[in-house]
Specification:
By secondary structure, this protein is mainly beta. Helix content is about 15%, strand content about 45%. The protein is built from 1 helix and 12 strands; from the N terminus they run H-E-E-E-E-E-E-E-E-E-E-E-E. The protein has one helix at about 5-25; strands spanning about 30-35, 35-40, 45-50, 55, 60-65, 75-80, 85-90, 90-95, 100, 105-115, 120-125, 130-140. Strands 1, 2, 3, 5, 8, 9 and 10 form a 7-stranded antiparallel beta sheet that branches. It has a 5-stranded mixed beta sheet with strand order 4-12-11-6-7, with no helix packed on it. The N and C termini lie far apart (about 60 Å). InterPro entries: DUF4871 (IPR032366). It comes from Alkalicoccobacillus gibsonii.
Length: about 140
Amino acid sequence: MKSPFLVSGCALLLMLTGCFKGESQAEVSPVFTNEFGEMFGIDQKVGIIGGPVLAGESQKWMWHFWGEEAPNQDFSAVATNLDSNEEINPIIQNTILTQRDSLEIISHSPSEVQFPSAGIWKIKTYIEDEFFEEFVVQVYSESTD
């Protein structure tokens, strides 16, 4: 007869393994196209104009936020590497959000970002320190040309 503790312990171990595995294999957010060009992120929430992201190299991103009237407000981001759980602020330099002429995209801002290592990174965005949206990006170790 099997011990109920052994069966319960194995079941718990399988559940925890599944949770951790699912987190590190999160799906990269899609690329989409609109009147401003090709973006990645969450369509109709937060979109980034920028090329493939390379580890250790700074890159310009143009952030676009839908549904938030946020001109002259600060925005920020926290990025977490889903394999190592390393957490960083990827934004090296940014400006405050400005109003967009479009009725759909309310605010936008240029920035410079950098990620220290390759992998899958979850990025949580904040406007005036309030959570706005999150998306997932692939950071490459070298050029994808």
